[in-house]
């Protein structure tokens, strides 16, 4: 059965272009995104720009105050600490549920990350990193855990932008995630929990 592909709208294309620039760190936190300048730069109408910015505001990548241009959202070190405070118990639940199980979709995301070309933008690494962790959460089979984790997705992605200065060699990032997936698959639950906790503390602690 052939499933037709849905054409990508100008709004989606612009939102994707801006998303990649934010997640690659090209657009630094606090950078304003005036509608008129974006309209001229990308050759699209201002209503298209306004809708694309609204998409990214909804995702948490941009913030907007009344009568001011949208700005790239900033995640401070205090924000990251609080994010980890909330993520740790969720990831701990995940580790217990998945101990002794192999997560094929997580392995696939890691393989895609490893196969990215050397000059791939950091946003592509962020996308596969998020896909890996999301696959593990989905594998648990708890819709509520999945929803809670999804609420944190935007700040997690923004936090990952900071990690590009920690992981200048992507092979190191790939190896660490390979060790994580292997540890969870081996089990038992206590070992999986320790591996997940160590993984969170390592990268984010240096971010």
TrEMBL record:
Keywords from the UniProt entry: DNA-binding, Transcription, Transcription regulation
Matches recorded under InterPro entries: GntR_C (IPR011711), TF_FadR/GntR_C (IPR008920), Tscrpt_reg_HTH_GntR (IPR000524), WH-like_DNA-bd_sf (IPR036388), WH_DNA-bd_sf (IPR036390)
Please give the Pfam families that the UniProt record associates with this protein. FCD, GntR
Claim: Secreted is one of the keywords in the record = no
Known Gene3D superfamilies for this protein?
A: GntR ligand-binding domain-like, Winged helix-like DNA-binding domain superfamily/Winged helix DNA-binding domain
This one is known as: DNA-binding GntR family transcriptional regulator
> In which organism is this protein found?
Streptosporangium sandarakinum
Q: Which SUPFAM superfamilies does the entry link to?
A: GntR ligand-binding domain-like, Winged helix' DNA-binding domain
| Leader peptide range in chain numbering | none
